[in-house]
Structure formats: structure tokens, C-alpha cells
Amino acid sequence: SIMASELRVNTLKDASGNNSIATSFVAGGSVKVWSGVSTTSAAAGDNFNISSLVDDATGRTSHNFTNALTNANFVAVYGARASGISDAYVNDYSATARTTSKNTSQAQSSSTGSFADINYAQMSIQGDLA
Questions:
Q1: Helix intervals (H) in 5-91
Q2: Are 62 and 54 in contact (CB under 8 A)?
Q3: pTM of the prediction?
Q4: Are 107 and 90 in contact (CB under 8 A)?
Q5: Distance in angstroms (rounded) separating the CA atoms of residues 34 and 125
Q6: Would you say 98 and 43 are in contact if contact means Cβ atoms under 8 Å apart?
């Protein structure tokens, strides 16, 4: 049988015993969710802590988390890479749709203001896991 184990430490240091950091900074400062998605089909590229994606509408995607966060006041950071749309950007599309287990994003063109399906929208979320 395989026994589970855990390592309990307060501080991490490099091999020389320098550059220490408290483990609370490592756990608290790590990205808890990230994804790269094509908003054309809500097809996930590489991701972490994403259980599923939903194509809500043109340029709009819901990201469902595998592991929930403690509250919906997390920080979400977005980026865009698009062919044919030189001024694409990505942001939240519905503050009321944000929950501890889901975030929504939208891709738009800054020159036209219209929603746009793009090749690759990126999102990362910092917050506390439940």
C-alpha cells in the first residue's frame, strides 16, 4: 500500500541557505487558475484548475474551476492574441456572474467596441483556494 506523506515547513531557502521565503507567501502568491482559450469555440489550450469552459456568446467565455476559491473577490488578469484583430483585448464581462467556482471573460475590439472571437485569450487568477 502507498502511504500519503506531507512535509511541514515554515520557511524555504535555496541550497546555500540564503534567499528565504515563508511558505505562506508561496501559497498565497501563486496563481490559482490560469487558462488559454480560443473564444471561437471555448476550446481550452493549456490550463490549470479549469474543469470546463462554456462558449456563452461571440467572444464570451465562462471558465469553471476544478477547485473553488474562498470568495469571488479574486484578481483576474487578462491578455489577448488575435489574428486579424490588431486591437483585441480581454476583460470581465459580468461581475454578477463571477462566483467562487466560475469567472467570465470577453474579447473585444477596442476600435469597434464589438465582441470578437479571437485565437487565444489568456486569463490568470490570484486568490485563496477554499
A1: 23-29
A2: yes
A3: 0.81
A4: yes
A5: 6
A6: no
